[in-house]
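Give me structure tokens for this 166-residue protein.
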Amino acid sequence: MTNATRSSEATFEQLEKRLHEALARLEDPDAPLEERVRQHREAVRLHARMDAVLAEARDLVKPAEAKTGTPPDAADEPYEKVLARLTAAVEELEREDLPLARALQLHREAEALADRCESILKTAQGTLEELTPGAGANTPAPPDPIPPDLPAALPSFPGDDDAPPF
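Here you go.
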């Protein structure tokens, strides 16, 4: 069994907790020398396993485009699918028992998905602005002009021949 395989059996946090326990026992002045030597070896072994977990995590979080040459969201997925994938990644990230390697991988994926969602929304906004001129100007629409035949449509009152209709 390789170090990478063994390191995936325990989370980084579990290894770190065990390392702190071993260090506490190592520092116990009442412990016999043989026990302190054994705890030192255990601390060294746990530290090496933690390094292996970190190395494995670094390998997992390398961007997918570095491996395949194309970004993971290269397929033109609709916004709803990308958002669903982002939501699922965030929900998994919120789990407390998530190994560090998986958490790093999900974090990278979630960032890419969030960027993709933002890109899709900006593209949609640009399309809307093209279809409706002035929609993106953040200015209120001008009021409807007064139709030129409006004064003729108003009733006239006796003595108002020269007075404006308003």
